[in-house]
Amino acid sequence: MAHKKAAGSTANGRDSNPKMRGTKKYGGENVIPGNIIVRQKGTKLFPGTGVGMGRDFTIYALIPGKVKFSYYTKDKKLVSVVPA
Question: Is 44 within the bounds of a domain?
Answer without folding.
Answer: yes
